[in-house]
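Action item from last week, closing it out:
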Amino acid sequence: MTIQWYPGHMAKTRRMLVQELKVVDAALELVDARVPFSGRNPDLAELV
């Protein structure tokens, strides 16, 4: 039995983000100051 780690709603949001980033001039990542490193999305860094 394979465990799917990446849920469907996360994959859908990633696809939407890729499309939206094509038409923007700047992107801002807002993180929680209490967990500034672990609260970041590692996928965002490679997309931008």
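Closing note: Residues 8-47 form one domain.
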